[in-house]
Amino acid sequence: MSDSDLVRLRPRRIRVVCWSSAAALVLVFSLVATSLHGPTGYGYGSFQRGDQLAMIGLGVLGALAILLFTRPRVEADAHGVRVRNIIASYELPWEVVRNVRFDRGAPWASLELYDDDLLPMVALQAADKELAVDGVRALRRLHRARQATQAQG
């Protein structure tokens, strides 16, 4: 593999589910907001325009929280691998990676490091089936190529 080979991987199924869910959540909260008018019941309060806007705002915040799950990605080249999960990001040279794992029954692939740590790669999800398998194979090829160049040098 040459230095210009770059592997970019993102989950597919979870992105579709998250975008659909986020849109549905904003729609539901907007519909609920339109129904908020008049008195609150037998009390002295009544719903105001601010209550409706707050309900829509809550829907938007919930949608943004759901969209965090579309963030994961993996990029790798001959020098190393960059993993971006839902919250944290990592940039590792291939020298610290012992193996690229995708265990049977595991929800996603992971990197086994030489310090016996496992770094999950949420971007390579079992739900994506062949896409995830192809991604793991591409990462393993890059890892083997880097190990071969280290053994020669």
From TrEMBL:
<feature type="transmembrane region" description="Helical">
    <location>
        <begin position="53"/>
        <end position="70"/>
    </location>
</feature>
<feature type="transmembrane region" description="Helical">
    <location>
        <begin position="16"/>
        <end position="33"/>
    </location>
</feature>
<keyword id="KW-0472">Membrane</keyword>
<dbReference type="Pfam" id="PF10756">
    <property type="entry name" value="bPH_6"/>
</dbReference>
<keyword id="KW-1133">Transmembrane helix</keyword>
<feature type="domain" description="Low molecular weight protein antigen 6 PH">
    <location>
        <begin position="71"/>
        <end position="141"/>
    </location>
</feature>
<protein>
    <submittedName>
        <fullName>PH domain-containing protein</fullName>
    </submittedName>
</protein>
<dbReference type="InterPro" id="IPR019692">
    <property type="entry name" value="CFP-6_PH"/>
</dbReference>
<keyword id="KW-0812">Transmembrane</keyword>
